[in-house]
Structure prediction request, 104 residues.
Amino acid sequence: MVAAMALSKLPIFQSSEQFLNMQTQWAAALNPWLLNPMAKGIFLNDVTLKAGANSINHLLQRMQQGWAIVDIQNPITVYRSQPFNATTLTLTSSGAGTVSLYVF
Prediction:
């Protein structure tokens, strides 16, 4: 599993240098992406699911906003069966299988 990176707005340094004055243009372009919840996600690799409801610790340490299957190793159907919360993701699976998830 990969830990989430602490991303926030780009800091702006005050300077008379032309190079540093370009940072406001970079900030205008990059800050919307850095503030996007998908940029602050975590990959959960090789999560083993059983048939039925599965509670998975999503490790975000905040309220989850979404998830996606990035790899699935078995012919199963998976869906979210509980509302998002700050600690777990509850997925219901049609059978036993292994998936990799991106949670954000």
About this structure: The radius of gyration is 19 Å. Confidence is low (pLDDT under 50) at residues 1-5.
